[in-house]
Write a structure and sequence with these properties.
There is one protein chain. It contains 1 helix and no strands. The N and C termini lie close together (about 10 Å).
Length: about 40
């Protein structure tokens, strides 16, 4: 399972994936690393 956190005030990643492109890139990276569920 992988987490794509798009919350601007996130305590865990500081809004690192706010842009749609960054979120999709991260989701694809997680999937390529074996995540079968993304949240």
């Amino acid at each position: 399972m992988g987490i794509v956190n798009v919350t601007p005030d996130s305590f865990s990643d500081g809004g690192k994936f706010l842009s749609p492109d960054a979120a999709v890139d991260h989701a694809l990276k997680l999937a390529n690393e074996g995540a079968t569920i993304l949240d």
